[in-house]
Amino acid sequence: MEALLVGRSAPLAGTSHLSGIHKSLVATPLWLSEQGFDGDEQADRRVHGGPEKAVHHYPRDHYSAWIEQLGAQPLLLAPGAFGENLSTRGLTEESVCVGDVFELGQAVVQVSQGRQPCWKLNARLGHKGAARLMQDMGRTGWYYRVLKPGFVTGSDELVLVDRRETDWPLSRVMGLLFRRDPGLAREWAAAAELAPLAENWKRTFRRRLDTGAVEDWSKRLEG
């Protein structure tokens, strides 16, 4: 692992809102529970945090693409630009599958869902289209649920110990979620049956099957 990061809620630049996107490097061991890391905080618990989004992982591998898009702004020169708790190299949405189980220090975590970026990322990066760009690129990072609590340090390695959904890399699931194509109904139905996928994602796929329509993302992406 390249970095372990946590942070408290703080004012989001240019807005009247608080956000937990501000994270700092941690050098000492941290306790990881089913709700997340000690010392970590989410400002809006309706849509952030909780057992299915206890830990956010964002690949450092993606930073070079962001620098190409936005320039080498200071935030992009070190881990933490996207509010991630874990920063690594070598793992991406193409190589990680839904339900993958990893040992992380003393803890055990499981991939639960990808990230659905929101407008606060626009403010964070000073670019009004950053959230939509993240979604369109498919470089969103992902979340873990915690199967076994324990202490974690920034030098611990993520060790894959179980993979059962070999046909379901995160890139496939996120492609289904972020494409506005009712012709994908059969794939939506298959995704809705993935046992380890977070319930809110399965519920979204089921709702699309019931309505034949894709939800409006404008409020999430633009505020």
Features:
single chain, 223 residues, alpha+beta, eight-stranded mixed sheet, three-stranded antiparallel sheet, 7 helices, globular
Structure description:
- This protein is an alpha+beta fold and about 220 residues long.
- The protein has helices at about 65-70, 120-125, 130-135, 170-180, 185-190, 200-210, 220; strands spanning about 5, 10, 20, 25, 30-35, 35, 55-60, 85-90, 100-105, 105-115, 140-150, 150, 160.
- The chain has an 8-stranded mixed beta sheet.
- Helix 5 packs antiparallel against helix 6 (about 200-210).
- The protein is globular.
Helix content: 25-40%
Q: What value does the average pLDDT take? A: 95
- Care to count the β-strands? 13
Which percent band covers the strand fraction?
15-25%
Radius of gyration: 17 Å
What structural category do the secondary elements indicate? alpha+beta
Major sheet attributes: 8 strands, mixed
Count of alpha/pi helices: 7
Oligomer: single chain
Strands in their spatial order, largest beta sheet: 4-1-8-7-11-10-9-13
Report how far the terminal alpha carbons are from each other: 33 Å
N-to-C SSE string, H for helix and E for strand: EEEEEEEHEEEHHEEEHHHH
Topology:
Layout (H helix, E strand, L loop, with lengths): L2 E4 L3 E2 L6 E2 L4 E2 L4 E4 L2 E2 L17 E5 L3 H8 L15 E3 L12 E4 L2 E8 L5 H6 L4 H8 L4 E7 L1 E3 L5 E5 L7 H9 L6 H7 L7 H13 L6 H5 L1
Parallel strand pairs: 7-8
Antiparallel strand pairs: 1-4, 1-8, 2-3, 5-6, 5-12, 7-11, 9-10, 9-13, 10-11
Helix pairs in contact: 5-6
